[in-house]
Amino acid sequence: ADLRNADLRNAYLQGADLRNADLRNAYLRNADLRNADLRNADLRNAYLQGADLPDGIYQVVGCGSVNRCTTYDAINDRVICGCWNDYNGNHLLAFEQRIEDIYGEAGEEPNAEFYAEYMAAVTFFKTVRKE
Predict the structure, then answer these.
(1) Among 47, 70, 76, 97, which is disulfide-ready with 81 (CB 3.0 to 4.6 Å)?
(2) Coil, strand, or helix at residue 62?
(3) Which run of H or of E encompasses 39?
(4) Which of 60, 58, 72, 49 is closest to 117 using CA atoms?
């Protein structure tokens, strides 16, 4: 399904088959996605705040420079965080490297607070990652 930019706030999508769905930039605030099948779904830049997420998708709310949600799709090993896009799958290891490159001591914009917040999120995501 092509659901790019769709306004799906408060949508009841519990148990929906959304495999391979294009949900880029979809507005899914407060959507019910419990038990939805999101294998290979593209959630880049999707707004997921307040959504009931299926097992395997985790959020850390309020970290970083803009206090947004950082979402980890452990099913597809993808990080959704603001406008970050590495155009190579947005995998967790690439996100971790990006945080190091931006907020680490030798980064472009060193910031110990943002670095610690994001790295705590990365540690959590690694802990819950499905192998």
Answers:
(1) 70
(2) strand
(3) none
(4) 60
